[in-house]
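Quick one: sequence plus S-adenosylmethionine SMILES, need structure tokens.
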Amino acid sequence: MASVKENLLRAAELTESDSPRLDLEVLLCHLLGKSRAWLYTWPEHELEPEQQAAFDRLFERRIAGEPVAHLTGNREFWSLPLKVNRSTLIPRPDTEVLVEAVLELRPQESLRALDLGTGTGAIALALATEKPHWQLLAVDKMPAAVALAEENRQQLGLANVQVRQSDWFDGVPPQHFDVIVSNPPYIDAQDPHLREGDVRFEPRSALVADEQGLADIRQIAAQARSYLAADGLLLVEHGWQQADAVAELLGTRGFEQVQSWRDLGGQQRVTGGQWRG
Ligand SMILES: C[S@@+](CC[C@H](N)C(=O)[O-])C[C@H]1O[C@@H](n2cnc3c(N)ncnc32)[C@H](O)[C@@H]1O
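Reply:
Sure thing.
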């Protein structure tokens, strides 16, 4: 058995993590049902034997590289508590840039939007929270991801989002959306980053795409044209070296006012354009 403070000192052993101390704080908060402020207030608090045993197990899994979000089963996105699991991507803060860009470009209170490859539902649920009168359709190819997004939707009580299974547009009934967004798979299969960090525990179905990572974005851009209203907006997230390629493929498919947005690290990670109709 050890105190809160002693358990947090074990952060020194988490040499592969970028945020070892924070990782252990999050795991302790999850296990004890307390806030980080509580941990700072009660550093000498001793864990009960079963709590200590549970923490030791989580610690070993974290040492083995498992993402903190998989250990706790949740991750915050756009200040929304979302359930996560191994069926899809753990939502990343960088994706909030896409949400911000949509809200900046389309301030209106009423429109129809589609989120392709919704995963946990992160993007669609963030937009639905900000815009209660938007009607959103959120689709994913993986049944387990669809179930997860629906669970998150219900937990947040968002009635303006519909979640359904679809291989990109295949299961989307013909209609015209004002906004189509996607954070699709865009990593090349040979990319060495696939062997590092959290992505080792995330499914390839959420990460990898053919054609140097651009195959899914190409397909989405080509098909989106039939599903966009006049002046409808398409915005996609992509890798930090793909902005020029995505801008070009949108331009050659007839999208106008193509522009990119930078993520929190200053890289161009979201590109979009308007469909002239
Ligand atoms: C990078 S993850 C993004 C998840 C979520 N939108 C986010 O931003 O956190 C890509 C998602 O696309 C889904 N996906 C992959 N191929 C698909 C396809 N052909 N049709 C629909 N969804 C697909 C994956 O299952 C995964 O949930």
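The first strand starts at residue 74 and ends at 77. The chain is about 40% helix and 20% strand.
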